[in-house]
Amino acid sequence: MRWTGKAPLLVILGATATGKTGLALQLAERLNGEIVGADSRQIYRGMDIGTAKPDDEQRARVAHHLVDIADPDENPGLAVIQDLANTTIADIQRRGRLPMMVGGTGQYLSAIVEGWRIPEVPPNETLRRELEDFALSHGSEALHRRLADVDSVTAARTHPNNLRRVVRSLEVWHESGRAISEQQHRYPPPWRVLQIGLQLERETLYARADRRLEAMVEAGFVNEVRQLLEAGYSRDLPSMSGLGYRQLAAHLLDGLPLPEAIDAAKTATHDFIRRQLTWFRGHHSEIGWLDVASLKTDAIENDVQRWLAEN
Question: Are 29 and 112 in the same domain?
Answer without folding.
Answer: yes
